[in-house]
Specification:
The complex is a heterodimer.
Chain A: E1 7-18, E2 21-32, E3 36-40, H1 47-55, E4 61-68, E5 71-72, H2 78-83, E6 86-89, E7 96-100, H3 101-113, H4 119-133, E8 143-144, H5 150-163, E9 168-172, H6 180-193, E10 199-204, H7 210-213, E11 217-222, E12 225-230, H8 232-241, H9 244-249
Parallel strand pairs in A: 3-10, 3-11, 6-9, 9-10
Antiparallel strand pairs in A: 1-2, 1-4, 4-5, 7-8, 11-12
Chain B: H1 16-19, E1 28-31, H2 38-47, H3 52-67, H4 76-79, E2 91-93, H5 106-114, H6 117-124, E3 127-132, E4 135-141, H7 143-147, E5 151-154, H8 155-161, H9 163-169, H10 180-188, E6 193-197, E7 207-212, E8 219-220, E9 223-228, E10 233-241, E11 249-251, E12 254-259, E13 264-271, E14 277-287, E15 292-299, E16 304-307, E17 310-313, E18 319-328, E19 333-342, E20 348-358, E21 362-371, E22 379-389, E23 394-403, E24 409-415, H11 421-428, H12 434-450, H13 455-470
Parallel strand pairs in B: 3-7, 6-9, 7-10, 8-11, 9-12, 10-13, 11-14, 12-14, 13-15, 14-16, 14-17, 15-18, 16-19, 17-19, 18-20, 19-21, 20-22, 21-23, 22-24
Antiparallel strand pairs in B: 1-2, 3-4, 5-6
Helix pairs in contact in B: 2-3, 3-10, 8-9, 11-12, 12-13
The chains are: A alpha/beta, B alpha/beta.
């Protein structure tokens, strides 16, 4: 994938606090249209906090700038970021009992579009997305993430990502806990999503998914900072050698690479 | 589960005043003075031309009502606000009961038109009764059902035309002395529905009764008796509304259901009284062998509701269900629940109770499941789920289990779901604004209840909820 598209996402000097505690300690990142980035880090390094904060989770205080398609969005609530094309794939998608997948998807697609999608058009769009990702038809009438297996939830996240045509898709460990088939589905989804108008950032602990999604850039995240960046070869090096050597190189105790108290 | 702790919602029934809270000018044939006495009871009984035995039951009931103390459980503080001396116990509107809407007095007809009753009848009901204050002013039943021997009329007509059936079953499920309010109802009862479905007859579309209070400080005491003979089935729906006044009214019904061998009764209630009505209702069913009884009970309105639909599973393999939902908004307390008595072997039951409390509203689930000695092989499940909106909203659960046999399957689940903040965030991340997201969560929460309603009622319920969630006025 070429890297000459416009920046669809960037953040500058981003710091994230939970109460008084600083979890993300100054992050600069840029993703261009068509690019696939991976942000890798050990458990507890603050990766998920970063992902949620970028989307505007109300539990965090954020300093610094977040830009989507060149526009500041850091002052906007999550639904406004989503409507402008930011997508967050959840590590633990939340169940909403009693709400069917179809009703939810229609509401989400309508919100992204800024107008109600006609029922027929929506149905066709949904069926196409289901077929593309080989999602069983009975998902339509099941309640959102309610009683879904881990793999089913992740598949549904990817399906949502494709239906919502994001400008910037942020995937928070969408690869964790998946068998190889589900992993391929996620990777294929990412490869489809990244296109002339879309950039993707995969937040992950494992190198495994990167074999299938082939990132353009890899960032290593430790103790609330990006401590190293490079091409795909960096991911392979991490797989071969683990995280500790980088921690030592950048002057962190391996244990400190994972900031205590934060989410993984 | 807590949907939002920062922003209370505006209130269910936002447009209540306009849609239901209006009242007609008073124009009655007879309006009894306030208070209840043996003279009043005698007067009601004489006006109705009742047989002596019914008159005797009434007088005896009044003595029992006076002797019984107020319940000391439930919301006794709120109960204490009831002023029994400040209530009109009997009001008869002008005009005779009719089965032609055109003959209903103009003002009353306009009221029921406004409430959509004639329209609903044309569209999807097999029969309707409309009660205004103490009397049923309109009743009809589809001719083909009448031919099959289905009886559907007001209770007074039932007593007049089928005294042998009424005498046999009246008070057989809920005795006068069951509680203070069943005694009061027995003394002062007027109107309500009498239904008999003959053996093997299946009434395919619902019968509906609509209860309307109009006067201030009104006491409405309808009495309903439904008998489904062997292998028959019937679905009965009741709705009710009242004007909004600054002083209180009292609604105290007694409803008795009898499902004979293999029969099926579903009883659906959409209770939407104005928030100055005390709603203290006793509902109980007998389910004989292989019978199925379902109470589908929705409580949206009233100041205080105390209601615990009960099913006595008397015959082997009988099945009982109570599916209820309660909304408690500002100033409201919904103390609702269910009672299941497994009195025969291999009987099964299910209770699903959902409540939503918001502002300073309070909802309580009060339930009892009893398995009697000798009732082997029973299965029962109880599921309570509460949704709180706002920091002052309150929900309590008071479950009782009394199991006398060991080979019984009992499931009890009182769900305190995870705080809804994560649900809100998830839906917001998909572009839904917080109002839409909350509406979606609440609609999902009540979905198991709504899907049991006939479509027209489901639409109306969703509309009421949507109004609340949008916080719009009028």
């Amino acid at each position: 994938m070429s890297s000459n598209g416009d920046a669809v996402f960037s953040c500058h000097g981003l710091r994230v606090f939970v109460g008084d505690k600083e979890i993300v300690k100054g992050v600069d990142l840029e993703v261009r249209a068509g690019e696939k980035h991976a942000l890798m880090g050990p458990n507890g390094s603050g990766k998920s906090t970063l992902a949620s904060a970028l989307m505007g989770h109300p539990g965090y205080r954020v300093e610094g700038e977040i830009l989507l398609g060149g526009e500041r969005v850091d002052h906007l609530p999550p639904h406004e970021r989503a409507r402008r094309g930011m997508f967050l794939g959840f590590q633990y998608p939340v169940a909403v009992p009693g709400v069917s997948v179809a009703n939810f998807l229609r509401a989400a697609v309508s919100a992204r579009r800024g107008a109600d999608v006609p029922v027929r058009e929506f149905r066709q769009q949904m069926q196409a997305a289901f077929a593309e990702l080989q999602v069983p038809k009975d998902f339509v009438s099941r309640y959102l993430n309610d009683g879904f297996s881990g793999g089913e939830k992740k598949r549904l996240e990817i399906l949502q990502m494709l239906m919502l045509t994001p400008v910037f898709a942020l995937l928070d460990e969408t690869d964790s806990g998946l068998d190889i088939d589900a992993l391929k589905v996620v990777a294929e989804g990412v490869n489809k999503a990244a296109g002339p108008a879309t950039g993707v950032l995969m937040v992950t602990h494992y190198q495994r998914i990167l074999n299938y999604m082939k990132p353009d850039r890899v960032h290593v995240f430790m103790d609330g900072r990006i401590v190293r960046a490079g091409g795909p070869e960096l991911a392979h090096e991490l797989e071969a050698r683990g995280y500790d050597w980088i921690a030592r190189e950048v002057g962190l105790e391996p244990a400190a690479a994972a900031a205590e108290g934060s989410r993984s | 589960m807590n949907v939002d702790t920062r922003q209370g919602l505006a209130g269910i029934n936002q447009d209540y005043a306009e849609r239901y809270g209006f009242h007609d000018p008073e124009d009655y044939f007879l309006k009894a003075p306030k208070g209840i006495s043996h003279e009043l009871v005698e007067m009601i009984s004489r006006k109705k031309n009742e047989p002596q035995w019914m008159s005797d039951i009434r007088h005896q009931a009044l003595d029992i009502f006076r002797a019984k103390p107020m319940p000391t459980w439930g919301d006794s503080a709120m109960l204490g606000e009831i002023d029994f001396e400040n209530i009109h116990y009997y009001i008869k509107p002008k005009g005779e009961q009719t089965s032609d809407w055109n003959e209903v007095p103009e003002q009353i007809k306009k009221t029921f038109d406004r409430l959509g009753i004639p329209e609903a009848e044309r569209k999807f009901l097999a029969g309707v009764t409309a009660q205004y204050e103490s009397e049923v002013v309109y009743h009809s039943i589809r001719a083909d059902l009448e031919k099959l021997g289905v009886l559907f009329m007001d209770m007074d007509s039932g007593l007049r035309e089928h005294p042998e059936i009424v005498r046999k079953y009246f008070g057989s499920v809920i005795p006068t002395r069951d509680n203070k309010f069943s005694a009061l109802n027995t003394a002062a009862w007027s109107g309500g529905s009498f239904i008999y479905v003959p053996k093997g007859v299946k009434v395919d579309v619902p019968l509906q009764a609509y209860f309307r209070i109009n006067a201030e400080n009104m006491g409405q005491f309808e009495r309903t008796l439904i008998i489904a003979d062997e292998g028959s089935s019937v679905h009965y729906i009741e709705g009710c509304t009242a004007p909004t006044y600054s002083s209180d009214s009292l609604h105290s019904a007694v409803v008795e259901l009898i499902a004979m061998k293999g029969a099926r009764i579903r009883y659906t209630t959409i209770q939407n009284w104005s928030t100055n009505v005390f709603n203290l209702v006793t509902k109980r069913a007998h389910a004989h062998q292989d019978a199925v009884v379902e109470w589908v009970d929705g409580n949206l309105g009233s100041k205080l509701t105390m209601k615990y639909p009960a099913i006595v599973l008397k015959g082997e393999r009988a099945h009982g269900e109570v599916l209820s939902i309660a909304f408690a908004g500002h100033g409201q307390h919904q103390d609702a629940g269910a009672k299941m008595i497994h009195a025969a072997p291999n009987t099964t039951s299910r209770i699903v109770s959902k409540s939503i409390s918001k502002d300073d509203g309070r909802s309580s689930y009060r339930g009892m499941v009893k398995v009697a000695k000798g009732a082997h092989g029973c299965r029962t499940s109880v599921e309570c789920d509460a949704l709180l909106i706002g920091e002052r909203a309150r929900s309590d659960t008071y479950p009782t289990m009394d199991i006398a046999e060991s080979d019984v399957s009992v499931e009890h689940e009182a769900r305190v779901s995870k705080v809804g903040e994560e649900q809100l965030f998830y839906l917001q991340c998909r572009g839904l604004d917080p109002d839409k997201a909350r509406l979606m969560i609440v609609n999902g929460f009540i979905e198991p209840f709504v899907k049991e309603l006939p479509m027209e009622y489901a639409v109306e319920l969703n509309r009421l909820i949507e109004l609340e969630m949008e916080g719009s006025v009028g």
